[in-house]
Amino acid sequence: MAERELFWKVADQAARLNELMTLDPALKEIPLRRDVRSLGRLLGEVIKEQAGEGTYEAEEELRRLAISHRAIVDQEEAGLDDPAERELQERAVRIVGAMSVAGAYQIVKAFGTFFELTNLAETNHRMRRRRARQLSPDSPVKPGSMLGTLLRMRDAGIGAEEALELLRQVEVVPVFTAHPTEVARRVVLFKRRRIARELAGLDLLPLTDDEAARRQEAIFAEITALWQTDEVRRRPQGVDDEIRMGLDHYPGSLIAPLPELYEELAEDFRLAYGAELPDAAFPTVVRFGSWIGGDRDGNPNVTADSTRTALESARQMILARYLEGVEGLKELLTPSTSRVPFSAELRGALERYAATLAGAAAETAVYPAGEPYRRFLGFVHYRLQSTRSGGEHPDAYPDAATFAADLLLVRGSLAGGKGERLARRYVDPLLRQVETFGFHLHALDIRQHARIHARAVAELAAGAGTCGQGPGPLPSPPSAETTELLDTLRAVAKLKRRYSPKAIRSYVISGASSVRDTLSLIWLMELCGVRVAASANGKDPGVMPVPLFESIEDLRNAPGICRTLWCSPEYAPFLDSWGRRQEVMLGYSDSNKDGGMLTSTWEIYKAHRDLQRVAGECGVSLRLFHGRGGTVGRGGGPTHRAIIAQPADGFSGSLKITEQGEVINWKYSDPSLAKRNLELMVAASLETLARTGLVETRPEPAWEEALEEMSGSAFTFYRERITGNPDILPYFEQATPVLEFEHAKIGSRPVRRSRSRDLSELRAIPWGFGWMQSRHVIPGWFGVGFALERFVSGGEERMELLRTMMRRFPFFFDLIRNVELALTKVDLPLARLYASLVTDGGIRERVFAMVVEEYRRTRRMVLAVTGQARLLEKNPALNASLRLRNPYIDPLSMIQIELLRRKRRGEESDELNYVLAATINGIAAGLRNTG
Description:
Structural class: mainly alpha
Largest sheet: 9 strands, parallel
Radius of gyration: 29 Å
Number of strands: 9
Strand order of the largest sheet: 3-2-1-9-8-7-6-5-4
Strand content: 5-15%
Oligomer: single chain
Shape: globular
């Protein structure tokens, strides 16, 4: 290592510190450029060492061609009609065409690994810039931060008590799903985290040469390990794999840092209001949910055993963390009876435990009699161990509340013995974790499609009818789907008794389109012994049916369906048992596939608005569950902006949002990123409740009329050109790698809900995946340009109206900015190459010409409405990131196209399929989106 150049060497510690802390735009990007350059040089050394100079030179030649090609393409709309662009692309295509599959894989590995490293550098830079803003007295308060929200509330005349009351209404629930958009393997994610830790360590000053060398060598070793590791799974991912992967981010990014989040929120409250608020007094505003092991919609691999495994794994994880926490308290809480008093309540509890918990004698006997906290916590530790061991151990805690009660005894005794500081520092963080996670970690939602429930009801009714007609043939047995559904519901009933009743409290009904869908599920659940209504003592929340409205038609009908349901006398007892609370889910991905970006987004907004109005009229406290994905075509985009863009009237303060696939790693791979994301959700919910004036909460009628008109135009255009166009499905299947999705072995879920090849049966994720990989990105923008152009053709005053909406209507601003982001990921020259895979020349020319025409129209209209000369003009950081990545994505796309061409000519091998999957992985890493 002594002979290798030291890439992170610090020549001037003060200058390096200034780079890390500065707000100067010219200086603050230097650390990011250094990280990317240094990681790239280390990767270059690994490539030469592991694959040889030939591979390195081939990679460099393709990179240089791609950079030259990009210089042309990035000039406005130049590209498709430029002879120089064609010539450069054709040169690269010839190089790729001459490669063997093994040679192509080395290039794919090189570019894919570069994206892994670049993503880590950018993530580290996000955390670095956040620290710099926190340390700078000149840094403006971020509008989306909790402090920014509280300061606006204070300035709007909302006092400290009213602010606390509003906070008590806030509850945000990120729900982690197994939707197959995370392409990275679990072992690769762990390697990323180790590199990320070393990168962060290189910012710790003063940094000696020895320390820099040690960390550089550690990164070098990890890059070597990445090179030697399969980045794509060699076997299909099972549900158990998804369950394990879905828990990986909890210990380091959520459980341990959660008390720190509340410390920071309480400090923000103190800064805004000047009022001391103990961390423990801050309301619990965050809880967690999961679909992994509970989501059965179209996935026959999720069984009753899967659900049991998901619940047990989550329980074991959180109990292990509590055991660690209590073990730590035993070492920290050493006050002696010779120094301070302790409470009679604790003394009594200690005596009772000594008399009844004989099995704990060995664990507690090691602590002196004069150290009561340690002795008492020994009993607590023993009871937790008994709880974790499973079964019906007589000494186990019956529930998390009983465990919390023991901790509260310790806390109360400490506070009464002049140890309030110790209570706050050591006991309150654990109590906050228990309040948030219970013994179940997160609530596991069950999900199944409405038609499965309807079929079960019909089959059971037919069987009952046949049996009631006297002697005759036996009725047909229930179908396999019905049998599995009944087994699942019986298992749910048992699992709620075995685990915390709060572990399963919602059942999502996909494809809900009528009141009958909800009532049928209730009948089936009660038939199988599931307690649907909440218990009177509040210990069992029951299982609430949650209708999921997904299609455009169902979104439009949702308010009427819910009004009928909430006014139904059959439903009233259940609703009353839940405290008149109801959860309703809105589907972004399927509505987008059904109606296009503009109509889907607008119909979700209207459904949201009207559902809140109907809920108010029916005396229901509504919680909306937003089924957002990672890409903008599936509801993605900045979380804070998306929340405050929704209708404010009737908002209860409580919301759920799905976190899917690669988004989980993007937001929760690091404690500081996780805390920031949770803060944004909490702050946005509080902002929407408080209405501080950050955004206008009541859109003007002219704005809604404009959107209604544009949505109608976009819907008709999209349905004619996409869903109703017979050319689209063959074009999609041939001009994208969607049929190779299975080779990436991303998840356990099939691509289609059924065996039908109808577009309606294709899941929204592979739909988005195919268009994203092939750089068409249809779900994110198609039809928007047509609608905007048609609207403004009615007069110049209409363009001015749209520009006013951009300034004053957060919903429209969010929509257009998300469309703009999608447009930046479209690449027409690459899309043209993918289109060349379509065998029918007529279909190829018709569809691609249509895409080009609408892309150019949408780009032109977005620039006109936003007043920009180029896309992302007002977001230079994101623009720079995309410009950095694009030249490295292009060779991966060209290799993917070449391998798809070979495969469709009849070449078939495991090696070819594996390299195809590796291109999917690399492109996804480069675009930071899968589907």
